[in-house]
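Posted in: Protein Modeling Q&A

I'm a second-year student putting together a small comparison for a lab meeting, and my supervisor asked me to include a predicted structure for LmeA family phospholipid-binding protein. I've never done this before, so apologies if this is the wrong subforum. The sequence is pasted below exactly as I got it from our records. If anyone can share the structure token output, I'd also love a short note on what stands out.
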Amino acid sequence: MTGALDELTVTVPDAPLGKTTGTVTVHATGVPVSGDAPARSVDASVKLAPDAIAKLAGDLGRTVPGSLKVDGGNVVVELDPSQFLSGVSFGLTLKPSAKDGQLVLTPVAFDVGGASMSADTIRARFGSLADGILAPRRVCVASAFPSGLTLSKIAVDSAAVTADFAVDPRILSDPALQKPGKCP
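Accepted answer (user: helix_wrangler)
Welcome! Here is the predicted structure, written out as tokens:
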């Protein structure tokens, strides 16, 4: 048998992904049926339950363990009140995105004792003093996926976390690209 499959789509429900599982869909074109030639193109999408983002994000530092939750298109995390002298509760609303293969959580709102303020309002009032708390948090998720996949987009909502990946077309024929990626 020779030639190539014009199009191939494979969906794997409950695929293990690091500390969680999800539905993985891989779409490839120009897939050779024999030999080691790479596919012409490959893309992948992973759909996870909303609580999976907390498992992938891990410890964001100075947060209340288990407090990371999906809220609309954002995630919300409670900050450890012991880091503040007042004992007042603090929460941070973060917009997830992907950059350079990493999960990036960018603050968009801050909750102090139940009163919410946008990140822009805090920046306008406190300037560079707010940089530490409002800086984007980068989280390497490479070890949760094969090294031939690079996170390119992430979206969250109340039903799912959907991550799209750029895929090295050689992943189908190169075992090294099928092994888990590494975080720097």
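A couple of things worth pointing out for your meeting: The CA atoms of residues 106 and 135 lie 7 Å apart. The radius of gyration is 20 Å.
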